[in-house]
Sequence to fold (266 residues):
Amino acid sequence: MASSAENVQIRVPGEARFLALIRSVTTMLARNAGFPDVDVDKIELAVDEACSNVVEHAYRKASPKPAIELEIRWEPGRFIVDIVDRGIPFDFAKHVTPKFPDHWISGECRGAGLFLIRSCMDETEYESQPGQANRLRLVKRLQPT
Amino acid sequence: MPAPPLNIQTARSGDAVVIKLDGIVDASTIDALRRTLEPLCAQSAARIVVDGSLLTYINSLGFGLLFKLSQSCRALQGRLVVAGLQDKLRVVFKILGLEKLIQFAPTCTEALASLAANSKP
Fold:
């Protein structure tokens, strides 16, 4: 793990058993950045959902699984998490976030991850460079107290 | 690195089965939870309490599974009640709009009382 006061980069195997490690690092940094518990929990959930999607979808056909790279940095008032994978890209722009609870009532029991990511974070941005890497940026703004 | 733990304990309480979850539910533990709950929910008129009072984390995969299985129970005239989620996890439960779709009880005792009351003729 390479770190400075404002920037931490970690690279973990793209496997589900490492999600707890990702959550631990993310929550520790969000707490240190001054976020209240309720926002730390939201950041933890959003990052976990995003990384779960990488493991489950982007890396579904990959063997061995590539790594997931996390770049977490803190600017005044903003906590930024970049999640970089090297798997199957996702058409983020075309994805229509389902409405809840209608989604469940229609018989679906999956597909809530992106809804939670968007609900928990202030900004989301996805960029795919075909054949290279996909980068999901999650931003949480620290509300002044 | 070992998988993060999810300890699952199963106990009987009258006609009901109590599944006590201790740990986390995420992509690394969801299969263990599914293997425990699916056979129980496939039984006719099953009465199931999922006691989440010791859960420290659950994501959309876990809630999606609980929703699916509560529907399976209902289709077979059974019921599944989720009990005792800590506030942090109840927030996610609410965001996902599950409060009206999955029965929730503050404690395992209250969940069992609710099941018993509903099973009386």
